[in-house]
Amino acid sequence: CSCPRQVRLVVPIAVAFSPGSVPADLPRPLPFRDEQEMEITVNLRTSVTSHYEVVYRGTTAQEEAALAAATAREADAALHPLQDVSMGSLTMYVVPETSSLLPQGISVYVGKHRSALVRAGGSLAALQARLQQVTQLMSFTATSMAAALSDRVPDGRLSPDARRSLKSSLGYEITFSLLNPDPKSHAVDWDIEGAVNCYVKPVLDKLSLLANFSVDSQILYYAVLGVTPRYDKESSSFLLSTHSLPHVINPVEARLGSSAASLYPVLNFLLYVPERSHSPLYIQDKDGAPVSTNAFHSPRWGGIMVYNVEASASPQASLPLHVDVDMARVMEVFLAQLRLLFGLSRDELPAEFLLESPGNEGLADWELDHLLWAHTVENIATVSTTLTSLAQLLDKIGNIVIKDDVASEVYRAVASVQSAVAQLGKGHLHLAFQASKEAVTSSERAFFDPSLLHLLYFPDDQKFAIYIPLFLPMAVPILLSLAKIVRETRQRKKEPTKMD
Amino acid sequence: VCTSRFWFNYRHVANTLSVYRSVKRLGIPDSHIVLMLADDMACNPRNPKPATVFSHKNMELNVYGDDVEVDYRSYEVTVENFLRVLTGRIPPSTPRSKRLLSDDRSNILIYMTGHGGNGFLKFQDSEEITNVELADAFEQMWQKRRYNELLFIIDTCQGASMYERFYSPNIMALASSQVGEDSLSHQPDLGIGVHLMDRYTFYVLEFLEEIHPASQTNMNDLFQVCPKSLCVSTPGHRTDLFQRDPQNVLITDFFGSVRKVEITTEAISLDRDLAGFEREFPEDELATEPLKYAEQLPVAQIIHQKPKQKDWHPPGGFILGLWALIIMVFFKTYGIKHMKHVF
After folding, report:
1. Touching check for B43 and chain A: CB below 8 Å?
2. B343 in a structural domain
3. What parts of the sequence cross the membrane (chain A) (predicted)?
4. Is the residue at B306 inside a domain?
């Protein structure tokens, strides 16, 4: 297999200096190009080289007009149409150190699209250090690459983010379930269709570049959690402690009906309305305080949120109480969990960074790029492992017949992965991702073709046991006749000398 | 996987169903279990208690119950299907419940029981799987990272021979007897008339009864189950391919399912006005015609049908052959000159 062991990821970056922010110690006058390479080693044999192609230039008049806006958010919105919108590329605008565009104490503002505003730091070296940090945040870091290639990294060395994220797949199925264990007391009504159309669809549309998504929903009655919550007298509420949470999922999963879904990985989002006798129910974190979102999630599975119904004002209210679920609040939590399940977290940031919230779209453009980088690298790694192991299998068992379509899938996979690596080397993230997706589809189809089953092992003693009873009886008369013929020929040769 | 069929192999089905029950009790849902059984015990005509499979004598515990979900039953339990499930080379029309949809974070438990010998395991009295094939299948799984860790338990005669050839990492194996020894059965029940369980599985199940989803018992305890005094055969195990120390491996890592969970600490903020949200009020139910079943069986037509005319067929080969024989015998005895009287 000619798949390269070294993958080069090229990130095109433009750094635009606004007037008053140019550092004094530039090596050459603007505009100029610079290239930096960094090697990310995942394990002994696999490494990824990141190659940053930076163009340093001054801002154009339109950009300067946009940067004259009052707040960073407006500036970001105004700069968006002026940028290079190809995926994987980044633009950074350097503003003067004393600029009021960025709030006090903030030196980097990352926008919703693919640009950032950076405060000048005096010398070029300080600026470059800051730019390096921003670039890594917005494209990929050593940790995200290790997460993408997580099957080559021993488990103990992965960060929690890495262990959480979903594997790259061609599609995902999202299931929203409403669990009502007490229909006699609560008649719960949720407008899931409306919520999906208004809140979930924009996010999935943005993610549609990454994979196909399908959404379904269901309502389950009399589905209880497997754990009995504890009553807490001080807060007069019921509490679920952190160490009992892992046991909640299994009894519910048996009833979710996920076996009827498609072959794509399923993400389950459950909304649990506690029984009247166990209301209100709060989830405790490890310090004992109730969690604000009242929700928890499990990596590669989905999330559960507990929705407490306000106790009715009058005790004589007729049961069942009609409950209208506030879908916006629920979707805020579910979409946050969806982001976390995909590995997009905004946790470990330096204090001087300010990230713009992506709003209803759910994720910023650069976060989508982040996913695309990770998934492309993961796909390429998967394809190379699959094809190598397929080659080893075919070497080992020589008499497997390879059908024509399996062979053509293999050729297609090799061509696609080579194209993906080439596109990555040129910095075209979108094309690289599409090529890597094709490569994965072809290689999986070739590897998992049902005709490649190797029921062909015959141990030597079995071969003897089968063939000897067949051939030995047949061979006896043949061998004896041959012996007789040989003996007769030899006798005939001798006889002329005997007879005179 | 239960690899035997026929009534006298009742104990293998009871073994498998008991392990299935334990695993479900400890939390693994049916969607994560692939159960392969010949399934000919509960409705067998020789079963004095139909629809039951007992695992203790005096009919204490019915392991068949009402919620057994068998994925491969009867003649579908073949070596080919078993290897297809393991390696994933399944025809695209196979439903999700018959597939092993594991990934690189899944721990897999494989329990096999039946009749075996030195290096092979008999499948349904008609074919065998060898230890080399099994080892190759596991290697294929490892190449595609279809498992994180794998526990292989086998309860057959000479079971240890089946795990001799494994060479893929992260596999731990347990067997009920060494090469050259037979695994013996445990309790016959006079009411049912067959042996109900095998010894090794019986004691493993006694051990598993003590385990609950949060217990911290480790694998070393499982290795001590069923010493020679109780089991007559010597159980064996193999841990050299496993990376962790068995002392640190919990039983529930394989037999139960304890997920890693994280608290969701923050929610995103959605702009409610931006989303053109209109609450649709449910429409009143329109009155429709009462529903009725479609005509399934044209009963009127069947009752008044006339019997069908049967087509005429020439006499079959047997009759022709018989007449040819009679005629030949006749002419042999009396000579050919009588032929002119026939024609």
Report:
1. no
2. no
3. 464-486
4. no
If DSSP codes are grouped into helix, strand and coil, which group holds residue B163? Answer: helix
- The residue assigned the tokens 């119950």 is B65
From chain A, the residues in CB contact with B269 under 8 A are 332, 357
> Which chain B residue has its CA at the smallest distance from A249's CA?
B259
Measured between beta carbons, the chain A residues lying within 8 angstroms of B268 are 332, 335-336, 339, 357-358, 362
HSE-up (13 A, CA, CB side) for residue B158: 14
Contact B264 A331 (CB under 8 A): no
Closest CA to A298 of A253, A332, A330, A331: A253
| Residue at B334 is within a domain | no
For residue B111, the distance in angstroms to the closest alpha carbon of chain A comes to 21
Interface predicted TM-score (ipTM): 0.81
Cβ atoms A107, A119 nearer than 8 A: yes
Q: Is A242 exposed, middle or buried (0-12, 13-18, 19+ CB in 10 A)?
A: middle
Residue A378's nearest CA partner among B87, B243, B171, B103 is: B103
Q: Judging by DSSP bridges, how do beta strands B149-155 and B171-175 pair with one another?
A: parallel
- pTM, 2 dp: 0.81
Q: How many distinct structural domains can be found in chain B?
A: 1
Interface mutation target, options A220, A244, A355, A455, chain B, most CBs of B under 10 Å = A455
Residue linked to tokens 């009995």:
A228
Q: What is the full per-residue pLDDT of chain B (343 aa) written as tens digits?
A: 999 989 999 999 999 999 999 998 888 888 889 999 998 888 899 999 888 898 876 677 888 888 899 999 989 999 999 999 999 998 888 888 899 988 888 899 999 999 999 989 999 988 889 998 899 899 889 988 899 999 999 999 898 999 999 999 999 999 999 998 888 888 888 888 888 889 999 999 889 988 988 888 999 999 988 888 888 889 999 999 998 898 999 998 898 887 888 888 888 888 776 555 444 444 455 556 677 777 667 777 777 767 777 777 777 888 888 888 888 887 777 777 766 776 6
| Cα angle, residue B207 at apex, residues B204 and B211 outer, rounded to 5° | 125
Q: Mutate which of B26, B259, B273, B283 to test chain A, going by most A C-beta atoms within 10 A? A: B259
Q: Please check whether residue B256 lies inside any domain of the structure.
A: no
Q: Phi and psi (nearest 5°) for A362?
A: 90, -35
Contact B268 A362 (CB under 8 A): yes
Task: Please name the residue of chain A whose CA is at the shortest distance from the CA of residue B96.
Answer: A259
Residue with tokens 């407006």: A74
Residues in contact with A311: Cβ distance below 8 Å, sequence separation at least 6, in sequence order: A279, A280
CA distance A166 to chain B (A): 11
Taking one residue from A and the other from B, the number of pairs with CB-CB distance under 8 angstroms is 164
CATH of the domain at B45: 3.40.50.1460
- Binary contact (A298, B259; C-beta < 8 A): yes
Longest distance between any two alpha carbons in chain B, whole Å: 113
Give how far the C-alpha of residue A376 lies from the chain's centroid of Cα atoms, to the nearest Å: 10
User: Which residues of chain B make contact with A291, given a CB cutoff of 8 A?
Assistant: 263-265
Cα–Cα nearest to B101, from A180, A4, A258: A258
Q: Are strands B127-130 and B149-155 parallel, antiparallel or unpaired?
A: unpaired
Distance (Å, whole) CA A466 – CA A118 = 79
Structure tokens at A110: 């990352």
Separation between Cα atoms, residue A214 and residue A209, nearest integer Å:
14
